[in-house]
Amino acid sequence: MNPQHLLTFTVVARLKSITLTAQQLNIGQPAVSGQLKLLQTFVGEPLYERKGHKIELTAVGLGLLEYAQKIDTCYTQALEYVRSLQQISTGVLRIGATMTIASYYLPRFLVELQTKHAGVQVFMKTFDTSQTLHHLYNLDLGFIEGSVRSEELPSNYEVIPWQQDEIVLIIPEKHPLATEFQAYVPLDVFSRYQVIWRESGSGARQIVEQALLTAGIHSPVNIEVTGVSAVKESVRAGLGIGFSSVMALKNESAGLVARRIGSPDGLVWQLNILAPKPSLQSRVTQAFLELCQH
């Protein structure tokens, strides 16, 4: 049984005319008659009879019409859904992002997305970079800190350079380092003071550790916390010095000051987007990428 024949059958039943059905479906009358004939042959019972210029359904035809109308309803709903996707008035966006990006970068873009496309549902989960790569097939987009080795990335995904961020030292505003260094602090402060370290999967920690390794500086890990909020609260409590994205202090710096690390240019890192190749992106994904990139 051809579903298209059933859809044509519903139009004939509604208009009671092969001529009008052909006009509505924008096909020839022989095509309509041919579909009805094939459907009737498949059923093995008369589905309709001609009364003058009109088509009247038989009892078998009326019985079949109930099922054909259900298919027609589902087909219409599917068309409406596709049209709404094309207008980005519905759909789902699944994002995986590191804690810093999820907390301090993405919210304004998500607000803009849902302001422009109110029907879109957004689900965002926070991962470190390695976890984002692990869950990539369950995400529409991944936002990570630092680089990714080519062998780690599935072949149908690409890395899109996004924004540059800076990692800064976080210290209490009355800390000796705050007065000793006004522009930037040397890397050796990490060996002279107790450091509040981020969790091992943190991109910021990896950047700091790499800078210390390159400079030949050893800094023991005595205190390790999860998340930038925990770093800030630990520094406020006087447990040591910390570090974070400069964005983390933008709206919450009471009692804290930031200093550049290592040089007047600071310690810069790259934020990247992991995205499917353009041909595999949904319209919602494309719309959000456009917002983020412009």
Question: Which secondary structure elements does this structure contain, and how are they paired or packed?
Answer:
Elements: H1 3-15, H2 18-25, H3 29-43, E1 48-51, E2 54-57, H4 59-86, E3 92-97, H5 99-104, H6 106-116, E4 121-126, H7 129-134, E5 141-145, E6 157-172, H8 176-180, E7 184-185, H9 189-192, E8 196-198, H10 203-215, E9 223-225, H11 228-236, E10 242-245, E11 256-261, E12 267-276, H12 283-293
Parallel strand pairs: 3-4, 3-5, 7-11, 8-9
Antiparallel strand pairs: 1-2, 5-12, 6-10, 6-11, 6-12
Helix pairs in contact: 1-2, 1-3, 1-4, 2-3, 6-12
Structure description:
The protein has 294 residues and is an alpha/beta fold. The protein folds into three domains: 3-86, Orthogonal Bundle (Arc Repressor Mutant, subunit A); 92-163 and 270-293, D-Maltodextrin-Binding Protein, domain 2, CATH 3.40.190.10; 165-269, Periplasmic binding protein-like II (D-Maltodextrin-Binding Protein, domain 2, 3-Layer(aba) Sandwich). The protein is 44% helix and 23% strand. The strands form three sheets. Strands 3, 4, 5, 6, 7, 10, 11 and 12 form an eight-stranded mixed sheet that branches. A two-stranded antiparallel ribbon has the order 1-2. Strands 8-9 form a two-stranded parallel ribbon. Helix 10 (203-215) links the parallel strand 8 and strand 9 (223-225). Helix 1 packs across helix 2 (18-25), helix 1 (3-15) crosses helix 4 (59-86) and helix 2 (18-25) crosses helix 3 (29-43). The protein starts with a helix and ends with a helix. The model has no long low-confidence stretch (mean pLDDT 90).
